[in-house]
Design goal:
about 270 residues; mainly alpha; Serine Threonine Protein Phosphatase 5, Tetratricopeptide repeat
């Protein structure tokens, strides 16, 4: 599935030298690999994620397994392993790692947040980003259970997500953002589509969907989402500023495409 390994960055370069840059990056990696002796957990995670986004899924799994072995308390390593196994259709292993993620992380995070002072917008966003790992873990298990025809277990996970807020608009947007971050673009789009059925004018949904459309190299639809967000977002809000920036990027890409088409027609 090509969408599962697309580069996970919003403002990527569309120039024709992308292939040369990728080759250069791999050359640097190969040259430095033998010199790397003791990577930190964050560095190991970044390297594994880089392999994932560049389509080397088997190597990414090996790297994450090594990360889990050497840093067993590192956050979300089992989540990433679960989705890698899911992409490779190793459903039993996917369920195993995604279940471990839910058990090890959800209770800890929820207990920590339960004893915090009243919410601010920034802290609420951080809580949703953490809970998205729990919801997306359940969604991954549901996908695996569907393939294995474990329909009763799929129903249990569906109820868990719904009861914990994962089926709300803000929950679906948080899940879409996490999937987008990992390059799981079809899954991200599915979450945003569900959010649009609930609150089609929600500013957070609009701006985050616009970012996804930019990743999919669809600047026209992205511009529409950003423009819609700018019209409904509160003044001086983060969503408004993100929408204005997104509009500028989408317009630049549309102008570049038009310029290229004009040169080709000459």
């Amino acid at each position: 599935r090509a969408d599962e390994v697309e580069e996970g960055t919003l403002y990527f370069d569309d120039d024709d030298d992308d292939d040369d840059n990728a080759h250069s990056a791999w050359s640097k990696y190969e040259a430095l690999k033998s010199k790397a002796t003791a990577l930190s957990a964050v560095e190991m995670d970044a390297l594994a994620q880089w392999k994932w986004l560049n389509g080397r899924l088997g190597e990414a799994i090996d790297s994450y397994l090594e990360l889990a072995r050497t840093h067993p308390k590192y956050l979300h390593v089992h989540f990433k392993l679960g989705y890698l196994y899911l992409i490779l259709q190793n459903y039993e292993s996917a369920i195993q790692h995604l279940t471990y993620e839910s058990r090890a992380k959800h209770d800890l995070e929820m207990d920590k947040h339960a004893h915090m002072p009243p919410l601010t917008n920034v802290r609420r966003a951080k809580i949703l980003a953490q809970k998205a790992y729990y919801w997306c873990s359940a969604a991954g298990r549901m996908e695996a259970h569907q393939y294995l025809k474990h329909f009763d277990k799929k129903a249990v996970d569906a109820r868990l997500v719904a009861s914990d807020g994962g089926s709300s608009t803000e929950g679906l947007v948080a899940m879409g953002c996490l999937f987008r971050q990992l390059g799981l673009l079809q899954r991200a789009e599915g979450c945003f589509d569900q959010a649009s059925l609930q609150k089609p004018n929600d500013p957070s949904y609009l701006v985050e969907y616009g970012k996804l459309l930019l990743l999919q190299r669809r600047p026209g639809p992205a511009l529409g989402k950003f423009s819609d967000c700018r019209r409904v977002a509160p003044a001086l809000s983060e969503d408004l500023f993100q929408a204005m920036l997104g509009e500028a990027v989408a317009n630049m890409r549309l102008q570049k495409a038009a310029s290229t088409a004009a040169w080709d027609a000459v």
